[in-house]
Structures are given as structure tokens and as C-alpha cells.
Write a sequence for this structure.
């Protein structure tokens, strides 16, 4: 593969690390782009990938973003379902967003619904990990004592783009109705149990090994919050149809089975305390996803920001940062997610009687 300035800069940084001094430049290969936030570079013969951020989805400066992502891998690692973190290449002028060196996972995209149990086991392995007892021990990850309120604050920031997103009136009314429900729901006094969560659990972020183990390979938004967000993000239509490689539309029986599998995979106390929250958190997670879609539609039209390793905010959804095929794919998915027919079908999960609502109490 032809060398590029990025590969050359990464190579110069990589060979300074113990164990990588003899790696030739030709061993570095840029993989096809499949996501909006990272490039991935394989280091041939070393069993590792370089995860190279293109932006910070959390709006962090470059160094803080990389430190945060490293912490995501370190905290989720003991569960046994994420790649190991080998090294951190801090941002500098040549690699403005830095890079993580992580284990390369050999596997295939999930096949849904057959691989849902494996995905749920991977999530349960994270949710079952002990939580550091002190705030200092939980830093730098986001630490949400009120995961509903904190997540809805993110939703509100996304929703600021609804007016500019060109929604059909029926879609806007439906989203506004859910926003009104969420605002009322957030006023309740009780809170869901807190666990470590990935907050980026859509099926396209997993690889399934030849042993049938699902490995969550994309970690950058982990936080201490409510497990119901992960379960929703793994199974909502806006997640299961996001990635071409594992596109699927799940039926209510598939959804009910996935949630039941999780309830049986985590500690009993966590399952019991989480049960009344699972369906409401599904609604909130969908709101997060659909309002993010409006945000992307608006912000993707902007010009890309210059990559500077000292920038105070490295979030950038500009279409300029990704190839045209990926941008077209995302635009098509966003158009579907914002379509009033799609929105009505998704909302039927909690507005109509079906096996999912029978399994998961509303918590209301």
C-alpha cells in the first residue's frame, strides 16, 4: 500500500515504543474507513491496530480525548470482551489527535439475531464489573449519579438542531412528544442503578471470534451510567440498521429474548433493580439517537476544522473527514431514522402492547 504522511508520522512514533523498533513502514496499512470518528491502521505481523481519532465525539481537547479513550479500554478490559490496550501515542503536531495501540481482533461482523446472545454477554461482562468507590477512582470517565438527567442534557443539545434539520411535520411532532415525555420522566425522584457502560453498543462495534465470543472493539464513550442505555443501543432499529455488515431488523421476540438474556447474565441484584428502568431508558436512548441524527444532518454540512493537537474542542462531524461512500451511507440512514413512518414504527414498541412491554415494566 502506498505510504501517506499519516502513516509516516505514525510509523515514526510507533518505532520509539519498546517491542516495535524494527517494524518497517511497509507494515502499516490503512484499513477501509467504516466509522465517522476513527481511522484504523493495521501493523502487519504485530497483532495490533492503531486507532487514530479523526475527532472527539465528546467534544474534548485532543489529549483529553485520547486519555479518555485509553481509560475506556482499561476499565472495560477486565470483563474480557474488549481488545487489550498496548500503548498510547499522545497527540503532537504530526499526529494531532494521537493514537491508541490496541490488540487486533480476528473476527467477523455479528449476524443478527443469532449473535445477539454473544453481544449481550459482552455487555453483561462490562456491567458486572465493580465500580470504583471514589469519584477520583472513576475519573476521567463521565460519572453520572443521575444518568437520565445527564443523558437528557445531551439530548437537549442535539435537539437544538431540529429546526435546521428539515424534518417533516409528523416527525417533528413525534419527537417533540417524546421530548415532553422524557422531561416529565426525568422529574421522578428515583434513579436506576449505576454500572460501567459503553454507551456505544450498536452491533457494528463488535467482532465475533471463531469461538463465538463477541468483542466490543470500539470504545470511546464509556461512562458510569445506566445499563439500560447499552441494551437499547445494542437492539434499537437505529442501531441494528446502522452498519451494512450486520444490518437487521429485529422482531419483538428477538428483543424480548435479548433483554431476558441480560437479566439472567448479570448479578441478580442488578437485574432486579434495573428491570423497571429498561423500557424507559430504551425511549431515552432512542431520543438520543434520533436527535443526534438531526445534529449530524446539520453539522455534516460544515467545513472540517483544522486538526490541531492543542484545540480546546475536537468534535467535528464534517463530511469532509470521511470518504463519500461512508457519508452517503450515513446520510441515507439518517434520512430513514428521521422519517415519520420509521419513527412511528419504533415508538410502537412502547406505545402499543407487545411482548416487549409485557416483559419490561414501564417504570412509570
Amino acid at each position: 500500500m502506498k505510504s501517506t504522511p499519516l502513516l509516516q508520522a505514525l510509523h515514526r512514533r510507533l518505532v520509539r515504543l519498546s517491542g516495535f523498533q524494527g517494524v518497517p513502514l511497509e507494515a502499516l496499512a490503512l484499513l477501509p474507513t467504516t466509522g465517522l470518528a476513527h481511522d484504523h491502521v493495521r501493523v502487519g505481523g504485530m497483532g495490533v491496530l492503531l486507532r487514530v481519532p479523526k475527532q472527539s465525539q465528546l467534544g474534548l481537547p485532543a489529549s483529553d480525548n485520547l486519555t479518555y479513550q485509553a481509560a475506556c479500554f482499561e476499565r472495560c478490559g477486565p470483563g474480557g470482551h474488549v481488545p487489550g490496550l498496548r500503548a498510547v501515542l499522545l497527540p503532537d503536531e504530526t499526529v494531532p489527535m494521537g493514537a491508541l495501540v490496541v490488540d487486533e481482533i480476528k473476527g467477523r461482523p455479528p449476524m443478527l439475531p443469532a449473535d445477539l446472545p454473544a453481544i449481550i454477554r459482552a455487555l453483561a461482562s462490562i456491567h458486572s464489573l465493580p465500580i470504583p468507590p471514589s469519584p477520583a477512582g472513576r475519573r476521567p470517565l463521565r460519572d453520572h449519579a443521575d444518568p437520565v438527567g445527564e443523558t437528557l442534557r445531551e439530548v437537549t443539545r442535539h435537539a437544538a438542531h431540529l429546526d435546521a434539520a428539515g424534518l417533516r411535520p409528523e416527525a417533528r411532532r413525534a419527537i417533540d412528544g417524546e421530548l415532553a415525555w422524557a422531561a416529565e420522566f426525568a422529574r421522578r425522584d428515583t434513579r436506576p442503578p449505576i454500572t460501567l457502560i459503553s454507551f456505544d453498543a450498536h452491533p457494528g462495534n463488535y467482532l465475533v471470534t471463531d469461538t463465538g465470543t463477541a468483542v466490543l472493539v470500539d470504545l470511546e464513550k464509556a461512562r458510569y451510567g445506566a445499563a439500560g442505555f447499552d441494551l437499547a443501543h445494542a437492539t434499537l432499529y437505529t442501531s441494528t440498521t446502522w452498519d451494512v455488515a450486520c444490518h437487521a431488523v429485529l422482531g419483538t421476540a428477538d428483543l424480548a429474548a435479548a433483554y431476558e438474556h441480560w437479566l439472567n447474565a448479570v448479578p441478580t441484584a442488578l437485574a432486579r433493580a434495573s428491570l423497571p428502568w429498561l423500557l424507559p431508558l430504551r425511549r431515552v436512548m432512542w431520543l438520543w439517537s434520533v436527535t443526534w441524527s438531526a445534529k449530524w444532518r446539520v453539522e455534516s454540512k460544515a467545513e472540517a476544522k483544522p486538526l490541531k493537537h492543542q484545540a480546546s474542542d475536537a468534535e467535528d462531524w464534517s463530511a469532509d473527514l470521511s470518504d463519500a461512500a461512508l457519508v452517503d451511507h450515513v446520510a441515507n440512514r439518517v434520512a430513514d431514522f428521521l422519517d415519520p413512518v420509521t419513527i412511528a414504527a419504533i415508538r410502537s414498541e412502547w406505545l402499543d402492547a407487545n411482548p416487549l412491554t409485557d416483559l419490561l415494566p414501564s417504570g412509570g
Q: What stands out?
A: The chain has 14 helices and ten strands.
